[in-house]
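Priority: medium. Attachment 1 of 2:
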């Protein structure tokens, strides 16, 4: 199974046109995008095309799904569910970046068709009613509309227990509405409970594997997602998103080689899709894959490859219509490339991207702040902290408490480094402990493979600098429990263990470093003074 995925990735590395080029030259088959059976009252001739459109929708290939549903609508105008599909292609619940006006218009068309087509079934009307809850114009916010949609889909699933599509879409809605502060992952567990039995019956359904990966994309459940992760790209091999999504699980379990193979192919497919893309969706997919790729290359010590990703990103021509997905990656990739390798002068020289969403701009300012503090430019570091404070408040005014809190974590980290470099070690540790507490009360957003540096990893380094060696080792080990195989956490744990005289632990962490990073581009020995302020 795994060798097949790696083989495909290898073909794309060698420039093999294969699956990506075929995408625009023939009607996609179940072998290429997965198998879906979604019964409708639409005419028999459009049945296959409708199922293919739903398969694309389940892999978040929104642009292609929209085109496919519009084709069904043109072939069978009385088919209300074709316009439901168009409306669903504008429902981007994970990122809230869909075209709401276009979605409402398609839903309106579907309801107009229902009014004149007596063949539309009660079940189909329930799908439209559920989506209407999301597109309601009642003054409520997106979160309230998503919750209303989830409740309607729960009702639909209960009313039609044999309709696996209702269950699958309901499972996705559960994930979308899961509170980021719920560390019991109740919604995600229920999502898995719904999907796992369907996965056994429909192993080639793209949505089932896809949404299992999303629902298990957390430190507690990640191992349960490995089987779906290793299958999804084979279910829908021509989908950029299907090739990327397994890396959410591979990142959680620290399987860097598998993450790299997933995202190399995903980025290639997305690049091909850009040619026919009417908006920024394909570029979003490409940048999202590149961010995960950058993360995996850095964790596996492949510095030249990480630098190549950054260079490729910097060389991309600008496109209109990027969402927060693309914004985030454009900020995160250069921040990771500098902070991960402790290139503090380069980090302090980063330039925030104009027009980015606040939480994307904050990533750049956080890197500037840490880089400036650690290279001795405390004035610029203080300016970065002030900018992060302002961005935090902007996000809060936009009613986005989650991202406001994420920015506050970054502000506290910069404040901690300013205190540390100012000789106020106790204040530095206090600020970092508060950053850890805030960050670990939330889970990461699906837009990112993880923080540029986990707050607890920063705390561990501060402990190491202060020669609080056992606290440092304990903190590094805590990072590795939730973020396995992070290079700097393994390296830091080895340094702390060596300084403590714990040769057994030091050898263990060095062995793990050798396993995840067999090359020679990053250090292999912790032999150094623990008073150094560099993490690399």
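Attachment 2 of 2:
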């Amino acid at each position: 199974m795994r060798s097949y995925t790696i083989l495909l990735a290898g073909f794309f590395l060698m420039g093999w046109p294969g699956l990506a080029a075929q995408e625009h030259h023939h009607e996609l088959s179940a072998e290429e995008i997965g198998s879906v059976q979604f019964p409708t009252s639409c005419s028999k001739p459009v049945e296959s095309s409708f199922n293919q459109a739903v398969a694309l929708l389940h892999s978040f290939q929104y642009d292609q799904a929209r085109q496919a549903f519009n084709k069904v609508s043109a072939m069978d105008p009385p088919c209300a569910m074709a316009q439901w599909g168009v409306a669903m292609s504008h429902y981007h619940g994970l990122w809230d970046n869909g075209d709401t006006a276009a979605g409402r218009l398609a839903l309106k068309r579907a309801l107009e068709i229902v009014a004149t087509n007596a063949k539309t079934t009660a079940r189909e009307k329930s799908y439209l009613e559920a989506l209407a809850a999301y597109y309601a114009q009642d003054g409520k916010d997106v979160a309230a509309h998503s919750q209303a949609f989830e409740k309607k889909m729960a009702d639909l699933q209960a009313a039609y227990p044999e309709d696996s599509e209702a269950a699958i879409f309901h499972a996705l809605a559960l994930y979308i509405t899961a509170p980021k502060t719920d560390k019991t992952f109740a919604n995600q567990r229920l999502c898995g409970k719904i999907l796992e039995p369907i996965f056994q019956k429909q192993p080639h359904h793209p949505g089932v594997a896809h949404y299992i990966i999303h629902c298990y994309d957390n430190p507690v459940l990640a191992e349960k997602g490995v089987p779906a992760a290793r299958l999804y790209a084979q279910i829908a091999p021509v989908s950029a998103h299907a090739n990327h999504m397994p890396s959410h699980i591979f990142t959680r379990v620290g399987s860097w080689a598998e993450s790299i193979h997933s995202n190399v192919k995903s980025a290639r497919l997305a690049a091909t899709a850009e040619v026919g893309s009417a908006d920024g969706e394909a570029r979003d997919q490409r940048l999202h894959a590149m961010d995960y790729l950058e993360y995996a290359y850095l964790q596996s010590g492949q510095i030249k490859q990480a630098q190549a990703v950054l260079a490729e990103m910097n060389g991309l021509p600008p496109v209109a219509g990027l969402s927060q997905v693309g914004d985030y990656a454009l900020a995160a990739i250069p921040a990771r490339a500098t902070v991960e390798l402790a290139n503090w002068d380069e980090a302090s020289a980063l330039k925030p991207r104009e027009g980015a969403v606040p939480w994307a701009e904050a990533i750049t300012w956080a890197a500037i702040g840490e880089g400036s503090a650690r290279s001795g430019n405390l004035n610029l570091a203080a300016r970065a902290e002030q900018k992060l404070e302002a961005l935090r408040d902007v996000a809060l005014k936009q009613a986005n408490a989650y991202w406001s809190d994420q920015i506050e974590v970054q502000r506290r980290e910069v404040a901690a480094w300013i205190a540390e470099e100012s000789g106020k070690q106790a204040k530095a540790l206090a600020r970092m402990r508060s950053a850890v507490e805030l960050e670990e009360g939330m889970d990461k957003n699906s837009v990112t493979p993880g923080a540029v540096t986990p707050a607890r990893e920063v705390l561990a380094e501060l402990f190491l600098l202060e020669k609080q060696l056992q606290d440092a080792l304990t903190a590094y080990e805590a990072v590795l429990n939730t973020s396995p195989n992070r290079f700097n956490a393994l390296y830091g744990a080895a340094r702390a263990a060596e300084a403590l005289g714990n040769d057994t632990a030091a050898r263990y962490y060095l062995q793990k470093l050798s396993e995840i990073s067999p090359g020679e581009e990053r250090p292999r020995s912790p032999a150094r003074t623990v008073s150094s302020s560099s993490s690399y």
